[in-house]
Amino acid sequence: MADVTQRFNPRLDQIAVSMIRQFDERVSNIPNILKLTLGEPDFNTPEHVKQAGISAIEQNYSHYTGMAGIEELRKVAARFVHDKYKLSYDFQSEVLVSIGVTEGISASLISVLEAGDKVILPSPIFPGYEPIITLTGAEPIYIDTSTNDFVLSPEALEKTLQKHGEDVKAIVLNYPSNPTGVTYSRGEVKAIADVVKKYPVFVISDEVYSELTYEGEHVSIAEYAREQTILLNGLSKSHAMTGWRLGLIFAPEALTKQIIKTHQYLVTSAVTSAQMAAVEALSAGIDDALPMREEYRKRRDFVYEQLQCLGYEVVKPTGAFYIFAKIPEGYKQDSMAFCVDLAEKESLAIIPGAAFGLGGQGYVRISYAASMEDLKDAMQRIEHYMENNKMA
């Protein structure tokens, strides 16, 4: 029998299943495990949005839509980002509906990159970008932000762009950030945009946590560098719709004309009933995220204060629903070893910071997308672990 197992794309050998998923599966069978691991809102999709999805199925919205998505959804999506973030996009030619932001990331990167290109990634960063970059034959270039409170400085960006020159094809931004919860002020966004506009690079900006911004307003880099920006957003975090797999791509027409080709061959189109539900979410449910955001804020404050009392260094999150905490001296500094030990001894699962690349080692990520009861329990388990596992 012919052996085809050695004939896969050899670049697959350079990537692996996300360490987040690997770790989550590793600890899931521990008895009484309490998991603060995945970026999964613990809220349910708002009832009126669910009913819109049910109604769509009952009305036989079960056929293909156009490649770009339902016109009404693209229209309300353009209105949403205009009303929320002062952005103007033509719904007919500058908005695409994707299967979650994940597919939007893939479609955008595959459309932009070719072998030999370089892509700047401020790190620590969500590990969903590098594998796609690697599969295209491009190379990720990391900028360690851990020494700057996890904020990419314009100086560091400029230095990296100058060093790598025309090889740099794109920069990926993700804010509010997974894993750090840090976001950018208007001045910081403008400063980055001022640098970017001097170079012929794409900005792929993943702003899926935009509605979960705690201090001030969310400012999209598309407001300042529109012609270079591929803006990604979606409903997974704002409307607790992770399983609906509904994302949005906003970009100038010249860019969407290219991205839609990749999008079409990857997925054809997004799920029709989910698109109908999304119309409801972005219109009648335009502010559905606000009560969830206030609950996340209370949880953030609680976990932040508890961790500080236990000796963790933490940059206070200003968005998303994660805390990225530095492991105190006197404990295992290898983040994977620390998290495995914590899971085995206290039945508490949090994510090793090493999963998020350069600058992540020595940190842990805690998701506070969990009930206050679970968070109180988790903090007690961490406290017990800290009391009994300090190294000599």
UniProtKB/TrEMBL annotation:
Source domain of life: Bacteria
Cofactor: pyridoxal 5'-phosphate
UniProt-listed PANTHER family: AMINOTRANSFERASE, ASPARTATE AMINOTRANSFERASE
Record PROSITE patterns: AA_TRANSFER_CLASS_1
EC numbers, comma separated: 2.6.1.-
MF term (GO), any: transaminase activity
NCBIfam families xref list: PRK07309.1
UniProt-listed Gene3D superfamilies: Aspartate Aminotransferase, domain 1, Type I PLP-dependent aspartate aminotransferase-like (Major domain)
Family recorded in the similarity comment: Belongs to the class-I pyridoxal-phosphate-dependent aminotransferase family.
EC category name: transferase
Cross-referenced Pfam families: Aminotran_1_2
Key words of the record: Aminotransferase, Pyridoxal phosphate, Transferase
Protein name: Aminotransferase
Organism listed in the record: Tetragenococcus solitarius
